[in-house]
């Protein structure tokens, strides 16, 4: 993954996905988000981008989602993310790396004492 991703530029996985979408589909002047979601096994990023485009292009969200998915599957990121289309046209980007998924599952269970962190910030 390191040979494709420039970590000085990319700060989040959602940024990586968003940048790739900007290269494969004409998204000029379209403000869209990639949101984090999680099911029991995988970390997933989702976007309702197809609904925004459907209004502009007068096409169905599912048609646009399929078009985007086809192009995404030709990109370099297909090795790292599986793109799925939900029944209603949401795009879902599933992290394929099992080790990364396991690590994210472990780290999400860490309970950070927020009060202690706030106190330390106030002392500095």
Explain briefly what this protein structure is.
The protein is 43% helix and 15% strand. By secondary structure, the protein is of the alpha+beta class.
In words, what does this structure look like?
The protein is an alpha+beta fold and 124 residues long. The protein has 5 helices and 4 strands, in the order αββααββαα. β3 and β4 (91-95) form a beta hairpin. The longest helix is centred in the first third of the chain and has 12 residues, at 13-24. It is globular. It starts with 12 loop residues before the first helix and ends with a helix. The model has no long low-confidence stretch (mean pLDDT 81).
Can you lay out the helices and strands and say which pair or pack?
Layout: H1 13-24, E1 35-38, E2 43-47, H2 49-57, H3 61-72, E3 81-85, E4 91-95, H4 98-107, H5 114-123
Antiparallel strand pairs: 1-2, 2-4, 3-4
Helix pairs in contact: 2-3
Unreliable spans are none
**What structural class do the secondary elements suggest?**
alpha+beta
β-strand number = 4
CATH class (first level) name: Alpha Beta
The average pLDDT value, as a whole number, equals 81
How much strand? 15-25%
Helices and strands, in order, run as HEEHHEEHH
CATH topology: Gyrase A, domain 2
Strand order across the largest sheet: 1-2-4-3
CATH superfamily, called what?
Answer: Arginyl tRNA synthetase N-terminal domain
